[in-house]
Amino acid sequence: MTAPSVTTTGTAVCGARRRFVLVAVAVATVDLVSKAIASRALAGRDVDLPGPLDLSLAYNSGVAFSIGVGVPPWVLVALATGIATVVAIAAWRGQFPSAVAAGLVVGGAAANVVDRLQAGSVVDMLHTGWWPTFNLADVWIVVGCALLVLTELNASRRRDKSPDPNPSQGASHQ
């Protein structure tokens, strides 16, 4: 078995980076557009949808589930930006098995940061009645985090099952 060439490895890294950036930009764009539409279409009214999900406009000045209400917006922006930056750097360096999952997390976080910078709060519009109101960025972040965990567990299992490339190291020879 031969080692991958630098060109093959370089191409794979570029492809992963491209997927990461495209996913992050796409999900941030979709989220910000959905928030703009919700802000106009849901002002002063709720929409009951069939099934467990309804549309109801809310403004969250805290973080997930309105934790941190009253914390200055700049603190929340700095925290979210710092976490998204760490994830983005790790994804750029290829430290995650899934560039797509990392893109979901970074894109969702970026969209919520942009929203908070514009208004001091985040627009939420997805309402279940049994869960705090949330937005698409929150969905992207949760799904991305879950995929990061699952793909890392899968990659870890594959590493554990792969044969040791140097089985004679550490063994005594007679």
List key phrases describing it.
mainly alpha; single chain; 59% helix; two-stranded antiparallel ribbon
Give the topology.
Blueprint lengths: L5 H36 L12 E7 L12 H20 L6 H21 L2 E6 L8 H26 L13
Antiparallel strand pairs: 1-2
Q: pLDDT under 50 segments (min length 5)?
A: 1-8, 170-174
Integer-rounded radius of gyration:
21 Å
Physical arrangement of strands within the biggest beta sheet? 1-2
What structural class do helix, strand and pairing data support?
mainly alpha
The mean pLDDT is 87
What form results from the Cα inertia axes? Answer: elongated
Q: How many strands, what sense, and barrel or not for the largest sheet?
A: 2 strands, antiparallel
Give the terminus-to-terminus CA distance. Answer: 29 Å
Number of H- or I-type helical stretches: 4
Kindly state the number of beta strands.
2
Which percent bin holds the helix content?
55-70%
Task: Tell me the fraction of residues in β-strands, as a range.
Answer: 5-15%
**Helix and strand element order:** HEHHEH
How would you describe this protein?
With 174 residues, the chain is mainly α. The protein has a domain at 41-156. It has four helices and two strands. A two-stranded antiparallel sheet has the order 1-2. α1 runs parallel beside α3 (99-119). It starts with 5 loop residues before the first helix and ends in a 13-residue tail after the last helix. Mean pLDDT is 87; it is low at 1-8 and 170-174.
